[in-house]
Amino acid sequence: MTAPETTTAETLALTPEQTRWESYAPQFGALQQAELTPAGVPSWLSDWSEVSKAVSQTGAVLSLRADLDTADVAAREALSTFRAGVTPPLRRAEQELRRKLLGVPDYTPAPDFVLAYRRMRDEAAFYREANVALDVVHQQQMQRHAEITGGQTVSFDGAELTVPEAESLLGSADRTRREQVWQAMARSRATSRAPLDTLVLELLATRRQLAANADLMNTGPDNEEMGDYRAYRWQELDRVDYTPQHCLDFHRAVLDEVVPLAAKLMEGKARQLGLERLRPWDSSRRTALDAQGRPPLTPFKTASELEGIAERVFDALDPALGAQFAQMRGGLLDLASRPNKMSHAYCQSLQQSGQPFVVMNVVGTAHDLNVLLHEVGHAFHFFASARAQPLIWNRWSPIEFVEVPSMAMEFLALGHLEVAYLPADLERVRREQLENSILFLPWAAQMDAFQHWLYTQTGPQVSAAELDAKWLELDRAFHPWLDWSGLDESERASGWQYYHIFRAPFYYLEYAMCSLGALGIWKSALQDAPAALERYKSALSLGNTVSVPELYRAAGVEFRFDRPHLAELMAFVTAQLGS
What we know:
The chain is mainly alpha-helical. The chain is 62% helix and 5% strand. The protein has a domain at 8-142.
């Protein structure tokens, strides 16, 4: 397929008017002034949705520009100005429109709007005027994470590497070289440690104030009353299908069911490699440790080559999905790693155009291909929900499902990777994917456990040193197979300085939930691949119109993350590793 000629610059183009509230205010004003009857609600909602899409896309584009070049002062200032000038009046206007809708007598929402209507009712009750301005501060604080980390480089072997470039070297078969790279990365991270310490404490104070303004309080360790940000975030994320206790129970289940399995797996690799113990440079989430000591797989060299491989994989899996990815190659991808580009990978939604945009930092590894499959799974989700659901509130899905399309795509594509790897390497790729499905769960549980502790068990005077101590305690429990003896433990203790802690608070356990759903989808695909794929695609189109359990059922799996379900899926993965 030939990619469209649209460029990334054209996709991210904006006019000055699009960044100003004055361009949207008349439309929101007209919606507020309209006479609203039950019969007129659908067209009124459509008008509200369209202007909301326009505002959302402008904010998304400005955020992308700032992330794609964290050194671009103009892009950073444009995003800050938009958030300060547009977000507060937008939030107030949305609240007035919610109240207007909720006040319509005798209105019964259509079946595909029932959940959105319930969420609007909850959002109206959750709204606090005091949080309108404070949320702008919060957004600006979170953006500082990209500013601190975006320009980070690693000095190694006479070159200045981006962080993803350095991480890719941790897959070297030469253990001495791995250690040297790891030490260089540790030196680089040390330069950002202090500013990130300062930033997280500022964020913690802001987040507690958001909760206090919403009248959500808890008692701190010294019996002081303070904002309960966990309760705040639970409401903000519309977590209605499970409680914090379910999450705490899952942490314990991972410790009991998965950590011993992961430790056995890693200790077995160490024995095969003739190592007495595994050191931090022997374990990287980006590059799997090969038990046979082989160098990492490098299926491509350039971002363009990766795009071509991915398109052929998606074509083989499903021609309709291949066509969607071909569309993305026309200005909806920014994949190459470069200095001053935020190092995190993600998929952004452009609501007005109904298109996704994927950001990555590829350097030529097998991990990069896997991440692209993951992020494009998100893109397929947005394509499907945007095409099926005209209202902005019905797009995407609840966060407990949103990682299922991405994680499942990593598995669904496994049978079509011959375009990227030699036949002899395909089993290695499959095995690494299965191993990672085990090794990821302790990390996800640790990330979530840290945040539960951070927001419920610390007081206003908490220090960065206390955060380090807690992370160290958790890391020893969830990753006991790593030997840090003789090393500076400040590097281990500051492992909490991770993207999601700063920019997506309390969003991480969803990866674990969804990984179990993804395994269930793959398990079904091994029995009937076409049927599993059709269920997968059908679930994506439902967007936000049904509950989380219903979304999982539509995909052919259960929404469960209890101990028996976890144990059952780990047994399945173990059997697949032995087959």
